[in-house]
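[step 3/7] fold_predict: job queued, chain A
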Amino acid sequence: MSTNNQRIVSSRPMVSPALLRDEAPLTDAAEAVVVQSRTAVTKVLDGVDDRLLVVVGPCSVHDPVAGLDYARRLAALSDELSGDLCVVMRVYFEKPRTTLGWKGLINDPRLDGSYDVNHGLRIARRLLLDILALGLPVGCEFLDPITPQYIADTVSWGSIGARTAQSQVHRQLCSGLSMPIGIKNSTEGDVQAAVDAVKAAASSHVFPGITDDGLAAIFSTAGNPDCHVILRGSSLGPNYDRGSVEHTVGRLAKAGLPERVIVDGSHGNSGKDHLRQPVVAADIAERIAGGETEVVGIMLESFLEAGRQELVLGHAEDLAYGQSVTDACMGWDVTESVLRSLASAVGQRRASRSVKATASASSIATA
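[step 4/7] structure written:
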């Protein structure tokens, strides 16, 4: 009697990262979007660029057609507001579950429990390429440590969720990824866990993974200096207020890390109420207009239609178009209004700085 794999029901071959990239290659134009936007995001994080980073999009993509429809609208708005906002579309394909539930488009692309992962990887990569063709950068959450090999070359900004911020596997993964990574505080509100993760990810690590050809290998990383904390609130309440931000900045400074914070307007900060996301954004906008610089970015959950709907596996045809099947999202009209308000706030902060700089120069000249 074998002592191995006693609880494994079946296994199937998995497409290799190299084969998938050969089927759906990154074009030169798309590569330029990724490279330029990664640089832009890093400059915003470092304060070299005074724009606000905005990561906005569906809680999770379940319909590639609706996802691309949303991307077209966001790309046009992003171009219009590009002087004040650095916009990255949230394109999440993997959903961490507290207990059970739909695990995302890569795991179950047919939304019926068939778990055709190879098909899901192909759909996900092609959607990312379609969005990049619009000139719009994309951001993804990395949940499974193998998945990044299939799509990371298309991603300009990544995130590690609240449930995996304390995972050594994910901290090691961050240390080798090629883009800035935001790491959330824990679901219980522990900000130090995110600070520790940022510090760990900035260091080099050695760990097992898979190569482009799908073979097991040992990877050595250089460390990722562009990781940062995301304040997402918790079951205890929100943490986007100025006091919480200053407390987080203090912890980062104590750890010898760059003092940069992104606020997640959803999850614990909105009490999972999509109607409160604009309230969070308005508070951040007011503070930015008043000169606050510690918050370098904001995350928002948004889709074509407001709210959410229940997904019954095997009945995808019954779903309303453009509405989330996971967390409730803001609708497009509200999203557009929120982004315009944030852009206006950045413009006000910049104008105020310009006035102060002119006054200071005049004072020095007079003296």
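[step 5/7] annotate
The mean pLDDT is 95.
Residues 17-353 form a domain with the TIM Barrel fold (CATH 3.20.20.70).
exit 0
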